[in-house]
């Protein structure tokens, strides 16, 4: 705050000399001045052109420019009427002090149009004027000083002013320098573009850069990966591609830079400045026929860049809601041409007519070899499982030769189960061996199902990059801690893609918007609006007979189906509106909606009418709800690399048979406690093993996130849901909707590819608590049983095996892929059976039952699993990391053996819980799980103990009973025929390990349990 004092005007002195109206340094509340001046309208020349309509309040500098000839008349009239407001406040006296006159004549033009505070004056002779600045002013001044403070321009160019515009609240912006009338068009355009902050940059580099391209160019290539749009006038700014965060204005020869993140605007301006200078220096002409002494090459003769002159930058379609007229000081504003902003693929099948952006047309795919290592490894592992089963059969035949008892061959009924369970064990054994001795060079090469190297530049595609739609399903996650960081990461990738010439948008399927509090709902909607995000929110689930039902057990599939169905309806309505406009019938609306938003409203009304006006979907931003040729599906807790969209577009264009590019993901950690670290280590290890398998020739899995999808292929794999007869994209009856999608795509002849060239740029969140990780494993087990077996209640009509599995087995998918996929699904049955088999083993062997030699004892199984998984598995993976050049041999081995105790308790405590999930599906029990927590929740001992008891009390009770049984049966007072002595450690140890694992599972894996804070 600063204070300025000056004397009142003395009578008779104003006619001889006066200074201009008070400058913005006094922060004058000019609203009263404007009303005051309206009383003298008849005396002021050109007063009618005074921009009262454009600016609700008029500033002293503008007033002085229009009204200076009559200031003396006003002062005389004031004195005659006994008033001194204008005289004492706005007109400096001729007898003012030298200091006062210097201040009034040289103070900069600074003022705030929207400030609720400003100059406050009294009727005293010595007027005290007080200026108040808030946080926004400080930011504006700082940004101005850092970006334009050292700029020098000719005085004749005052009508082209640089400035800073900052959003202080929704729909309300503040501009600096304050109330410069030449910045009114800038502020109006920025308000419609709606970034958080925008800077209008004037510099010699901007002038020179615009001079390097022809007048009809629509963009400038600052470098190979940065293509910035050129707009004719400032009024075209709302039609700009917002994701580029920058646009040149041709008529004013300025650069507009904007951002939704205040922390990045300065670095953005600096980046532009550096690239502009490099461009200008590369494009310089020879002065006087002598190359520059600063150059050591012939670059001085490089002609100006005209690369962008033939490349049309996709523009947003013009709409009634955009600027129709902006006051122009020098020329009439030219309206932008009505063009579609994005290139959309509206066809529902791959056989749609060719379009300029059709990825399947006109491109020659690069040949990729099919690796045959995976078939060999899988075949060897399947043969090893046959050997294990065959060894049991050999034992039966040897025993039959001794006693001729054929009844023991009834044990062969268990052979299919034994083979299926041993298959994963055998394949894991083969993997460990191949990690040690198998080839690994192909891990760095591309093949049919694997991409280690990003695709080569494709000039034909790069000039017409397809639109990328980011699908982001969310629920009740925290906006600030989970959703916003993911969106900010996506926006960076979208900015890179926009500067490469592509367009993109974010489509949020918000299943929690109608369930959260009104305050949280408003914050979400505001956040979506500020970041140009399209969103759809369906009604909440209702248990009423006529209420809305959210289908599915986990709702994600039905959530995305709901949004996609509305988007397709909107496309149909949009086609009708465009056809109407083409036939000469105007589709404009009175409220100024663009065609996409009008089509969205029509689609919403159609859905509302279809369900009998019971519920209406919520949706906004029709442009961002349109689906492009390429879809990136992510989770709410996801980080993506900055440059990934163009690589995906190139690869999909290069390989028309690829439907999904699944990227290997690293881990995004937030808590960094030992449990999250352990699960992060396990996730990275699994992903690396998948990468190696796909490099060997294994068919890539689709995990449901961090994957690029071909929209035409996804629609080609759509199906009619028998429950409601509607065509749907995602299966709502399967927990594993991602596997179902992958299977349908493969049946249609598409392939899925695993990509690693992002080098860990994609990151996913992992479970933060042991409860969430247990829920995850139970969901996986439930989903696998859902894919393999029908519920018992439907066996009489559908049989035990699902139609989906029968279709998969008899499909044309590679045979080795069928073995590896089945081994993965059967591994859950092996884990689930371990607890029950350990109990059975304890009593059968402990009570010396007549057990056939075909029976494999629990201790032998435990010993084999210990050797193969923590033993050979860790050694093999350590050597693999070393052979791939990723880790030092010693540090990799040390890290892997460090986590052995963690996984000992983790896998040791899963069996009963997985059994519960498998049986729940088999007996049609409605098992439920809580939503996965994405944010860190601080906890302590006193909070965790009740939680552990509430969920694990049945396991604890069973564990105590089992331990008591082991102790009691080992005591001497138990009859000898019922006694299981403690010396029978091979019988007791397997059951003891299972019990200890289940009892200690929620205790030793709980990072908050040992915090005794309160």
From TrEMBL:
Gene3D superfamilies referenced in this protein's UniProt entry, alphabetically: Spore Coat Polysaccharide Biosynthesis Protein SpsA, Chain A (3.90.550.10)
Disordered: where is this region? 295-340
UniProt name for this protein? Glycosyltransferase family 2 protein
Q: Which residues form the DUF7928 domain?
A: 135-285
Keyword field: Membrane, Transferase, Transmembrane, Transmembrane helix
Q: Which taxonomic lineage does the organism of this UniProt entry have?
A: Eukaryota, Fungi, Dikarya, Basidiomycota, Agaricomycotina
Source species: Lentinula edodes (Shiitake mushroom)
Its transmembrane ranges are: 376-397, 409-427, 826-849, 861-880, 900-923, 955-973, 985-1009
Please name the Pfam families in this protein's record: DUF7928, Glyco_trans_2_3
Q: Which ranges are annotated Polar residues under compositional bias?
A: 295-310, 319-331
């Amino acid at each position: 705050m600063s204070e300025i004092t000056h004397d009142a005007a003395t009578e008779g002195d104003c006619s001889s000399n006066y200074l201009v109206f008070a400058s913005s340094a006094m922060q004058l509340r000019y609203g009263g001045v404007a009303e005051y001046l309206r009383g003298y309208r008849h005396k002021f020349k050109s007063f009618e052109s005074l921009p009262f309509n454009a600016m609700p309040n008029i500033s002293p500098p503008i007033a002085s420019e229009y009204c200076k000839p009559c200031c003396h008349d006003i002062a005389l009239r004031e004195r005659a009427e006994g008033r001194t407001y204008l005289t004492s406040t706005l007109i400096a006296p001729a007898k003012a002090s030298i200091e006062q006159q210097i201040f009034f004549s040289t103070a900069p033009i600074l003022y705030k149009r929207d400030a609720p505070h400003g100059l406050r004056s009294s009727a005293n002779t010595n007027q005290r004027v007080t200026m108040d600045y808030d946080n926004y002013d400080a930011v504006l001044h700082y940004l101005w000083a850092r970006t334009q403070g050292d700029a020098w321009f000719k005085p004749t160019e005052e009508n082209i002013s640089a400035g800073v515009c900052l959003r202080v609240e929704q729909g309300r912006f503040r501009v600096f320098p304050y109330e410069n009338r030449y910045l009114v068009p800038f502020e109006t355009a920025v308000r419609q573009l709606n970034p958080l902050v925008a800077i209008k940059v004037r510099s010699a580099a901007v002038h020179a850069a615009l001079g390097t391209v022809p007048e009809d160019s629509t963009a400038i290539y600052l470098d190979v990966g940065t293509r910035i749009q050129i707009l004719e006038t400032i009024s075209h700014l709302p039609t700009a591609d917002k994701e580029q965060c920058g646009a040149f204005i041709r008529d004013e020869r300025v650069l507009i830079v904007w951002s939704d993140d205040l922390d990045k605007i300065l670095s953005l301006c600096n980046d532009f400045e550096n690239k502009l200078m490099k461009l200008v220096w590369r494009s310089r002409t020879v002065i006087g026929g002598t190359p520059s002494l600063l150059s050591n090459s012939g670059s001085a003769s490089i002609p100006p860049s005209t690369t962008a002159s033939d490349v049309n930058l996709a523009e947003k379609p013009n709409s009634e809601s955009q600027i129709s007229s902006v006051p122009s000081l020098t020329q009439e504003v030219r309206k932008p041409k009505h063009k579609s902003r994005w290139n959309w693929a509206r066809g529902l099948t791959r056989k749609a007519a060719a379009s300029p952006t059709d990825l399947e047309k006109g491109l020659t795919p690069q040949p990729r070899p099919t690796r045959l290592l995976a078939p060999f490894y899988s075949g060897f592992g399947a043969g090893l499982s046959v050997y294990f089963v065959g060894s049991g059969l050999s034992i039966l035949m040897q025993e039959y030769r001794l006693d001729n008892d054929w009844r023991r061959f009834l044990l062969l009924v268990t052979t299919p189960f034994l083979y299926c369970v041993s298959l994963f064990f055998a394949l894991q054994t083969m993997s460990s061996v191949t990690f040690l001795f198998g080839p690994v060079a192909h891990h760095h090469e591309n093949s049919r199902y694997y991409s280690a190297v990003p695709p080569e530049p494709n000039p034909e595609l790069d000039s017409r990059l397809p639109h990328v739609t980011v699908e982001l399903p969310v629920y009740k996650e925290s906006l600030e801690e989970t959703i916003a960081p993911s969106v900010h990461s996506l926006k960076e990738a979208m900015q890179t893609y926009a500067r490469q010439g592509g367009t993109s948008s974010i489509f949020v399927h918000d299943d929690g918007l109608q369930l959260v509090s009104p305050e949280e709902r408003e914050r979400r909607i505001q956040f979506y609006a500020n970041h140009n995000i399209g969103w759809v929110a369906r009604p909440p689930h209702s248990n009423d007979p006529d209420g809305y039902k959210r289908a599915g057990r986990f709702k994600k599939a039905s959530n995305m189906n709901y949004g996609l169905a509305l988007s397709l309806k909107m496309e149909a309505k949009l086609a009708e509106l465009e056809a109407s406009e083409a036939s000469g019938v105007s589709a404009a609306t009175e409220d100024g909606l663009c065609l996409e938003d009008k089509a969205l409203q029509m689609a919403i009304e159609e859905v509302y009418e279809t369900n009998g006006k019971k519920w209406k979907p919520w949706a906004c931003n029709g442009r961002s709800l349109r689906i492009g040729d390429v879809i990136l599906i992510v989770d709410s807790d996801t980080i993506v690399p900055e440059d990934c969209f163009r690589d995906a577009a190139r690869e999909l264009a290069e390989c028309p048979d690829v439907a999904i590019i699944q990227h290997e993901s690293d881990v995004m950690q937030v808590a960094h406690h030992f449990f999250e670290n352990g699960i992060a280590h396990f996730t990275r290890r699994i992903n690396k093993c998948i990468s190696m398998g796909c490099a060997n020739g294994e068919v890539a899995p689709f995990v449901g996130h961090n994957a690029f999808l071909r929209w035409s292929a996804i629609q080609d794999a759509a199906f009619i849901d028998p429950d409601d007869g509607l065509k749907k994209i995602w299966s709502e009856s399967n927990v594993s909707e991602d596997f179902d999608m992958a299977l349908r795509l493969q049946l249609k002849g598409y392939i899925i590819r695993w990509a690693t060239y992002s080098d860990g740029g994609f990151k996913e969140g992992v479970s933060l608590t042991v409860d969430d990780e247990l829920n995850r494993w139970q969901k996986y087990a439930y989903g696998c049983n859902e894919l393999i077996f029908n519920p018992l209640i439907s066996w009489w009509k559908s049989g035990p095996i699902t139609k989906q599995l029968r279709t998969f087995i008899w499909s044309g998918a590679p045979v080795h892929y069928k073995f590896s996929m089945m081994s993965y699904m059967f591994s859950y049955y092996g884990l689930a059976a371990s607890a029950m088999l350990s109990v059975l083993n304890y009593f059968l062997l402990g009570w010396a039952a007549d057990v056939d030699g075909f029976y494999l004892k629990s201790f032998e199984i435990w010993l084999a699993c210990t050797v193969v998984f923590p033993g050979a598995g860790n050694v093999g993976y350590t050597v693999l990391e070393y052979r791939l050049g990723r880790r030092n041999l010693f540090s990799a081995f040390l890290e892997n053996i460090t986590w052995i105790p963690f996984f000992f308790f983790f896998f040791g405590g899963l069996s009963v819980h997985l059994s519960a999930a498998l049986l729940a599906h088999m007996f049609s029990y409605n098992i439920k799980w809580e939503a996965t927590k994405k944010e860190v929740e601080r906890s302590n001992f006193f909070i965790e103990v009740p939680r552990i008891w509430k969920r694990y009390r049945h396991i604890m009770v069973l564990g105590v009973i089992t331990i008591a049984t082991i102790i009691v049966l080992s005591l001497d007072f138990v009859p000898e025929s019922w006694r299981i002595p403690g010396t029978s450690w091979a019988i007791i140890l397997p059951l003891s390990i299972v019990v200890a694992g289940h009892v200690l599972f929620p205790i030793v894996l709980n990072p908050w349990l040992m915090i005794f804070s309160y």
